[in-house]
Amino acid sequence: MTIMQMVYWLVATLGNLSALYILKLEMNVISSLLLLFTLGYTAVGFYDIKFSPHTLNRLYPVVAYLRYFLESYRVEIQQYFIANDTEEKPFNREQRSLVYQRAKNARDTIAFGTQRDLMEENYLSLWHSLSPKEIKDDVKRVRFGGPDCTQPYDASYLNISAMSFGSLSANAIEAMNLGAKLAGCYHNTGEGGASPYHLKHGGDVVWQVGSGLFGCRDDEGNFNPDTFKAMATRPQIKMIEIKLSQGAKPGHGGVLPKAKITEEIAAIRHVPRDRDCVSPAVNPECTTPIALLNFVKRLRELSGGKPVGFKLCIGNPAEFLGICKAMLATGITPDFITVDGAEGGTGAAPVEFTNRLGMACLEGVYFVHNALIGVGLRDKIRIIASGKTASSFDLLSKIALGADTVNAARTMMMALGCIQSRHCNTNHCPTGIATQDPARSKALNVHDKSLRVKNFHHNTLKSFFELVGSMGLSDPTSLTPQMIKRRSPYGLLMSTGSLIEPLENEALIENRCDDAWSNWWESCSAEQFYVEDHYILKPAEFKVATH
Predict the structure, then answer these.
(1) Which residues belong to any copy of the Glutamate synthase domain (predicted)?
(2) Res 297 pLDDT > 80
(3) Is 52 a domain residue?
(4) 10 with 146, same domain?
(5) Which of 334, 347, 367, 445 has the fewest Cβ atoms within 10 Å of its own Cβ atom?
């Protein structure tokens, strides 16, 4: 018998008898409440010991509920009272505070010095210049649109990443789009399609066509060119993005829990409401590299010549090189490639997929950048990086590793008021952002929150351009991987990417590359995505030492 079981029997016997005796001596509020407490304790404890399905309740009657209560607030307790400013995941207190401060136009400086361990292994930093420069307005936009594009688009360096209506509430989508309009950046629709809330306020939109083909599918779920053309030719749609995979759950289709599927969402997506909306893991129009590029060409034609690209998380490097081979074989190139990092966020995903699959954003961007150089196509294709961007340094590091622009999702949600409660998959978001509960979502003020999106965008870019200027550069395009310094395990600084030999122009085509690149290039095919992962990666330090 456990201690709490003994306590229960003491309360059930002596406790009840004592309470009855006290009530008999003097009937008042206190004696009545005491008897109600002992009787209630007895009833709850009897159920726990005799009928509860939980072992914990049987062994620790009544008090076991205290454990469940505290556990329900564990995340909040840890966030507010236990975790320090730099240790929490996925975004720590320092990062979240920076977003909130910039979104509110509040003071974003810190006092008394850094809380970071500058000697920590893998710590990233920059070397400044004694000759800082000012970034002119004429280099603060990036043009999207390759040689086959007739409607190019000039994008901001920082934009709103893919978040669907369904994953986010209508008010949150409206606030994002109005914020994009005020900030002068684009707003990616996410795979749920271009909803009326993405279009209501006139902000620039990138329409993502996911594997579920939401917004451009027929009754059988097949691609509908007429529906696509009707939406894609709208002036507000600036670019089209084909989703192959997502960093937070690569190899797995998007998931919208049925609790969040309203009649409106079901109508927009053309899906039933009685089950979770799970997109296919493979885009049905892009089953091979050549099929993908033919789909790119078809969407570009149907949209009237707007920039079309695709989004993926990098896994087996050889499979991306298969897409590069297909570009050379068909002569079709996308206008952009969005590289989603494995550290990216999602509303709902299997734990193993989120934790264990895919390359991180910086690794993926650096690989794609070099691969496109190696096949001589880098100047025709823009790279968008997506994955954990809270500060201007996060933005700068992605640009330096090879990206042309950057998308941010969760920090844009924080600009709206997200508190990282991590209830996105329950429909009980406490800030009305990641929910379809009308009572919760209507509490989000569209106009006020759109201003915060604009402020965060403006203040982060302002800091980004100041940071670039502090390095002695007058144009962000001058950033290179070696400018990002990484603390090595030996305590010394090294240039990021210095242990990975960068490719020269057309080096893959002319077979002027190391063993890893050569093996991946020889094993890939333009006819299929899958390539057997049999190449043994060697420690980069060993490879450099042998040279």
Answers:
(1) 158-473
(2) yes
(3) yes
(4) no
(5) 445
